[in-house]
Amino acid sequence: MTALLSIGELSARTGLPVRTIRFYSDAGVVPEADRTEAGYRLYGEDALVRLGLVRTLRDLGIDLATIRRVLEREVSVPDVAAAHAVALGAQIRVLRVQKAVLEAVARHGSDPQELQRMHKLAKLSDDERKRIVANFLDTAFEGLDMDPEFVARMKSGLPELPEEPSPEQVDAWIELAELVQDPAFAASVRRMSEQHAAARASGEPMQPDAGWQRAAELVSERAGAALAAGVDPASDEAARIVSELESAFPGEHTRAELADRIATGTDPQAERYWQLLAIINGWPPVPTTVPAWEWFIAALRA
């Protein structure tokens, strides 16, 4: 018969403290084989193997409940290792983002309240980050007859922070999360959505129009140059530029109608929304064109 080991002998042979072995024994992962007449615990040789496996799995961060299932052969070690590797991967991604946030805090000298806010936003999972923006868009489109392809394009642009985000990407995510929770921005996007739904209801084509695209390029170029040169929107020079640009827009409209239509869709926050998404997702930079459009609107109304 194999000699039984006392808890002290088991401790000496495994290097584990007696209190740790007693804890594992009470948890049922290393059951005792017998007791002495004085009530002291005794263990079989198999306890050495079990303790070795328990120690290894605990060092890998696996919980006791799962270890018990492994020891009772309810699950295999490879299955547990695979599942734990996936979980650790998710934890590592979160830690990388948290590291980037701490670097952002160090750069900006954030106060305690801002630190808590930044930490809360940054520790969200990838799905949670996307859900914040998706919910914002759902609210903007709620109850409106929107073009399905337009909605699909909007919802395809969701934030995806890389596993090791740069400080600029972390800053952009925090700014984007604050932007989509801004009531003023939500109201602006809702107005744009209502204008879109009204145009759709009137039978206006919803696909990007080559004429409008060309007109937009001209506004960015000509109005942008006029703005940079300091041309007054109410000046004669501005009037000549407006005449040129106005004729580039397809369809019949008065200057006031054109100005009103453009104004609804001209929002620096909306442009910033796409600029932030581009930074977060590593897309090509989105140029700043809103100031040129604002100059053109002012010139149309002058």
Automatic annotation (TrEMBL):
Q: Which UniProt keywords apply?
A: DNA-binding
Q: Which domain of life is it from?
A: Bacteria
> Does the keyword DNA-binding belong to this entry?
yes
Stretches assigned to the HTH merR-type domain: 4-73
Q: Which Pfam families match?
A: MerR_1
| SMART domains per record | HTH_MERR
Q: Which CDD domains match?
A: HTH_MerR-like
Full protein name: MerR family transcriptional regulator
Give the organism the record lists: Solirubrobacter deserti
